[in-house]
Amino acid sequence: MIRITFKNVGQGDSIILEWKKSRKKKIGIIDCKKNLGSNPILDYIKEKEIKEISFLILSHPHLDHFSGFAELIEHCIKNKVKIKYFLHTANNTPSYWKAAVDSKEAETEILRLFNIIRDANSTGMKSHPIQADTINPDINLDDEYFLKFIAPTSIHLYNYARNFDTPPFEEETGNKPNANWLATVIKIYSKKHDGYILLTSDAKKETMFYDKKKDHNNSKSKLIIGQCPHHGAEGNFKNSFWKLINHEKNTPIVISVGTNIYGHPAERVITDLHKNNYEIYSTNKVGSLYSLKITPVAKETIIHLDTFGSIVPSLIKDKYNGDKIFDIDSLGKVTVC
Question: What average pLDDT does this structure show over 9-35?
């Protein structure tokens, strides 16, 4: 079994993967963001008294994905929590990282992280850049589950390096949108069943390419949990990809989102996901999730629950607020926790 937790960190990403290998509990972390002064990932590490982290993955160098990493790694060094790997989508030069951000706060924090990573290497943590189209093997989580990088490829890295950018501008303050070319797309798959998880961070819609003959989603494999790119931004959503991808009705798709000025998640994204038979889960009910122009019945139900939330059990609110936790068993069955 594998458990995936999308932490509620506001407008940003923090994901926890948990599994067992040789009867030992294992944990991997994808992105780590502070939220209103707290660090939900670090709090979890402390609460569970974690002594070893298999990997930390920085999907791309934007503040809403890495603001908590430096504090987390410092805690691990101080308290002798072993981190095996820090994987990231930037090379090991500060200027490459700095080109992704556009504020003094973000630049200071990314340089701090860069220095801490360099220091942590002396404690045994190995740091490696990610490039999906190299010969690097998939990461073996246990005897069943594997983690595979679909993006970024050399083409995506090239687009970032030449400062390629396209509208619309839907990026958070302090982040340069061209750095979304670096964003990871991660597939977690099993050798015992055909289901897989797809984590898209802030991937460009050009990255979400579906080739009926060559694409990794072809054949019997099917999506069982998906992550909506870039907090539900319309500019990153490619409807044809999510429509063509093999999935069953009511497949969970998660939007990691918080209060924002960009209207994330966009109304068109929400509408298209429903039309394509996905079951939407969100860490925060903001943007078009407030109006949900899907059906009059759904809209009326949400208004009712908002009005009488203290009286009526709020099932819909549970779907659209807080951490989203899913267990996947050896048969590929998904349980919402």
Answer: 95
